[in-house]
Amino acid sequence: xxxxxxxxxxxxxxxxxxxxxxxxxxxxxxxxxxxxxxxxxxxxxxxxxxxxxxxxxxxxxxxxxxxxxxxxxxxxxxxxxxxxxxxxxxxxxxxxxxxxxxxxxxxxxxxxxxxxxxxxxxxxxxxxxxxxxxxxxxxxxxxxxxxxxxxxxxxxxxxxxxxxxxxxxxxxxxxxxxxxxxxxxxxxxxxxxxxxxxxxxxxxxxxxxxxxxxxxxxxxxxxxxxxxxxxxxxxxxxxxxxxxxxxxxxxxxxxxxxxxxxxxxxxxxxxxxxxxxxxxxxxxxxxxxxxxxxxxxxxxxxxxxxxxxxxxxxxxxxxxxxxxxxxxxxxxxxxxxxxxxxxxxxxxxxxxxxxxxxxxxxxxxxxxxxxxxxxxxxxxxxxxxxxxxxxxxxxxxxxxxxxxxxxxx
Length: 409
Ligand code: COA
Description:
The protein is of the alpha/beta class. Helices cover about 35% and strands about 15% of the residues. It has a six-stranded parallel sheet with strand order 3-2-1-4-5-6. A three-stranded antiparallel sheet has the order 7-8-9, with helices on one face.
């Protein structure tokens, strides 16, 4: 079966997580993604290694289905080869520190001149303005995009979330921009510049918190568990803070992840009050409506917890879902990696790597009926030099050997 992005060639100058997460998705959608690495390789090949001298899981889990070439972009020969690669590519993606590609000598004007159809995507920490030249990592974006100030409990410090919304969250925004530019190129024949800032992507994901910031002007946020409000949205623990109240309640046997997140929609109250052994609350005017419960959500979830603590989270999941009550057990990483339904959905997949052997990774969450994804290994450093430089760019074998000797590739 063909792939959605078959025939699309991506020059992938990304490193660490934000950029590689984007180009991995493009590869899964069928693009030919050629990762252009310095001779030392993407720094993550050597970071957090679990096996000596073997590419780390950090690298292998973010660079599947790509090819790898090495290229010294600071040598004149490297710049010439890169020029040839740009001419043959549809998309260039990079997430170096601000200005790095310009310093290599490749401004947008120059790149567009080389290939007017080129789509050139960059991920940076920030947009135009006072922070443009600042570097950024995941939690920097969480800090400056609204996530950290709104995550955690009221009486504790700001908290970073484990979900990599600054890196992989930005990566998926970049994919959207690249695909839109590809569609527009189909109409205009011209490529364009795609830029995504990590701070902007996190802010986009924190949109509802700015909703609440504006609601504060009209009084306290009744859906929040907090008792006092200042001029800013407070950290609200595990409260959903949305239209339907939710909280994480404890389950048996009381371990760190023996919790289930329960949401009480209006029709859920009758079955919940029956399940927890308090059927008299179903029609009690003090409890019967969402408005009546709003000032005692903590008490409501306490009553639910007094029931849930008697069962394990899987049992509670089954009991609540039998009544169509939305809920989610808190799944640990250990539970996730062996979860049968995730394996069945190709979301937990095992891949063979030439040096590390089999490793487990997270599959592609975007499912296209006519473009199935087979997750394949990440490449070794420079594994495809010969393929790309000799067979595809037409560099003669003796010149190829010389370029290797003088440290260009
Ligand atoms: N050949 C020669 N040099 C190369 C090269 C190649 N193939 N590929 C990269 N380099 C050089 C670049 O030219 C640059 O050198 P310069 O600073 O002399 O111009 C350097 O390697 C890369 O610099 P930088 O990207 O700033 O690396 P860093 O390790 O100092 O910073 C980040 C890492 C992530 C902080 C930074 O890349 C960044 O802010 N990126 C944008 C935001 C982002 O994506 N952050 C999330 C990462 S998950």
